[in-house]
Amino acid sequence: MCRQEAHSPESEVIVKTAQDGCAEGLIYGGGGREGLFIKEVVPESPASKSLKLKEGDQVLSATVYFDNVPYEDAIQILEHAQAYKVKLCLKRKPDVPETEPIMESDVIPVNIFQLFYQSLCDKWS
């Protein structure tokens, strides 16, 4: 997807990287109001080999996959993200009324859905 803005001579291209891509080897710059940018892609790093990233790309968002992530690391990531807009993808077992007995042979379907959660901080108000 490419969008050309009338007031800007630059074009904006949004690149989605592979889910199994590794961000090891990226050096970031900027931050704050100017945004976060990829300052450097270290040659021969996992990021240089598996991602379609270039120096100067602006990082608009990031998705962290929690499969095979140690509990402590996952909690640290989520705690640091509390003050910002967060999009969570959750898996939840459906509610089962307490009056119905559950047999071991019963199969309980699992619904997968996306929940959009936005932390409302002073800076987003």
From TrEMBL:
CDD domains per the UniProt record, alphabetical: PDZ_canonical (cd00136)
A Pfam family assignment: PDZ
UniProt GO BP: regulation of RNA splicing
Record keywords: Nucleus
SUPFAM superfamilies, per the entry: PDZ domain-like
Domain annotation PDZ: ranges: 12-81
Domain of life: Eukaryota
Predominant cellular place of this UniProt entry's protein: nucleus
Compartments where located: Nucleus
InterPro entries: Myelin_sheath_structural, PDZ, PDZ_sf
GO cellular component annotations of the record: costamere; nucleus
Record's protein name: PDZ domain-containing protein
Species of the source: Labrus bergylta (ballan wrasse)
Lineage of source species: Eukaryota, Metazoa, Chordata, Craniata, Vertebrata
